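User: tokens in, sequence out, please.
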């Protein structure tokens, strides 16, 4: 959950797996309040996750997340010159 004003302030760019990392990193940079709220969940009713259900999917998602973090870091380094 995020307030509209905060979402607009963050200025999201990523439209893939990296969006959650981007949102968190940008929220920290902007000094926005962050809270983790536990939620209940049930076991998957059918099928198998394409991401967490396979080593290949997990590696691909992890790679995308790390690439997103690298891009955000690089943008910050370039922006502070």
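Assistant: Sequence out:
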């Amino acid at each position: 959950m995020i307030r509209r004003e905060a979402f607009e302030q963050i200025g999201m760019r990523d439209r893939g797996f990296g969006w959650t990392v981007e949102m968190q990193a940008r929220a920290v940079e902007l000094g926005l309040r962050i809270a983790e709220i536990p939620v209940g969940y049930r076991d998957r009713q059918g099928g198998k996750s394409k991401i967490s259900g396979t080593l290949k999917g997990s590696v691909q998602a992890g790679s995308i997340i790390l690439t997103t973090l690298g891009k955000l870091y690089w943008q910050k380094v370039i922006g502070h010159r």
